[in-house]
Amino acid sequence: MATATPSPSSSDAARARARGAAPSGVAPAPQPPAIRLAGVCKRFRKYTVRGGYTTLKTSLVKRMFRAKFPVGNYLDVLNGIDLEIPAGLTLGIIGRNGSGKSTLLKIMAGIIRPDQGVVEVRGRVSPLIELGAGFHPEFSGRENVYLNGLVIGMSKAETEERYDSIVEFAGLADVIDDPVRTYSSGMYMRLAFSVAVHADPEVLLIDEILAVGDESFIGKCYERIAAFQEAGKTIVMVSHGLESIERWCHEAIWIDEGRIAARGYPAEVVRLYHAAVTPAQKSPLRERSLRDSLTPGTLAATIRVVDPPVRTPEPWHYVMRTLLEVENVGDTVWRALPPTRRGTVMVGGRLHSGERFLGETLRALIPRDVHPRERACVELKFKLPGPGRYFVDLDLVDEGICWFVEHGSQTLRLEITV
C-alpha cells in the first residue's frame, strides 16, 4: 500500500562533501598544471596582393628593390597569453571568429610554435583540431587508423589492440576499407574522434569538430567526454555552441583580440561575452542564464507521483520503484550533470520507520537540464530494510550545496507498507 501526501519535513543539516585528506601534519604536495602558457605571442604574415596580379618579371623586380614584407604587414593573433590549466579541468574557450581560439589550441597541441613565450604540456595529447587532419585521402579508413594513431603518439601494438573498439565506436565497419576521400564530413569526424579518445590521452583538445556529427554520435561523444572527466583527464574545448560550454566545462575563458578578456564560471563568462557582442535588448541568453544550480537563487520544486511505489522482482531484497514528475517552480536552472558533482540536481529521500530516522535513500539523477516552469520525469529506486511500514520524504538535492527544503521548498511524504 502506498499513499502520498505533501508535507514539509524538518531539514537535516546539509552534509559536506567527502574530501580526501592528507595525513595529519603533512601538507599535500602541489600538483603542477597540465598546461601552462606564459607570455605566449603569435603573429602571422599577411600575404596580401595589392594592385592585382603581377607577372614573374614585376614580382622579381619588387623583391629586389623593395622590402619583402612592408612594415605593418603582420597580423598579431595572440598577445601575451598567460594561462594555467590544472590537471582534470575541462576548460571552454569562446570568442569571435578570428580572435585566436584555434591558434591557441594549436599551440597547446604543438602544431605551431609561438613567437614568444613558454608552453608546457604534461602527458599525452590528443588533438581534434581540423577535420581529417593526419588522414591521407587515398588511404583506406583502416590504414588511416594506424597512421593517425602514430601521429598522436600511439604505438602500432596499441593501435592493433584497440582497433576493433575504434571501428565499433565510429560505426564505420562497413566502409572501413574504403578510401577516406569517399567519406562524408561526419564519417571523417567519427573516425578521427574515435582514434583520439582511444589513445587514452591525459589532455584532449577539441576545436568545434563535433559540430558536424549526427545527434546519436554526438551523444556517444559526450558520454566519452563525461567518462574522461570522471577519470580526471584534462580537456580544452573550443566551441561556438555556448550551451555546450556552459554544460560541460568547469571554467571558461573569453578570448578577444588575442587576449584573455575574462575567465571564470562558464555561465558568467558567456554572459560577459554576450553583453559585449550583442545589444542588451536582443541578447537571447541574458535571461536564460540568470541562475543555475551552481549559483542558486530560489530552489523550489513540486513533486508528483506518476506511478506509486511497487516492489521490484528481486529475490531477498526489498527494492521499491516509483516514477515521479518534478516541476521547477523556482528561478534556477537545474543542472542534470555538470562536469563536477557540485551543482548536480538529483531526487533523493529520507527514510523513516515511525519517528525513527533510518537514513537517506539512493539518489536518482534528473535526465536533463530543467529550466523554470519546466517538468521532468524521474525513476527512483531505493531499498527498504525488510517488511514493515515506512515513510519516505522525497526532495530534490543539489550535490554539495543543500536539500531544496532548506531553501523553502516542500518535500513529498510517501507511506509504504511491504
Structural description of this entry:
23% of the residues lie in helices and 31% in strands. It is an alpha+beta fold. The chain is elongated, with a radius of gyration of 27 Å.
What class, by secondary structure content?
A: alpha+beta
Which stretches are poorly predicted, pLDDT < 50 over at least 5 residues? 1-28, 280-290
The helix content, as a percent range, equals 10-25%
Q: Number of DSSP strands?
A: 19
Strand content range: 25-35%
Q: What order do the SSEs take from the amino end to the carboxyl end, as H and E?
A: EEHEEHEEHHHEHEHEEHHEEEEEEEEE
At the fold tier of CATH, the topology name of the largest domain is: Rossmann fold
Average residue pLDDT: 79
Short characterization:
Helix content is 23%, strand content 31%. It is of the alpha+beta class and 418 residues long.
Features:
disordered N terminus; 2 domains; six-stranded mixed sheet; 418 residues; 9 helices; Rossmann fold; alpha+beta; 19 strands; seven-stranded antiparallel sheet; 31% strand; elongated; Immunoglobulin-like
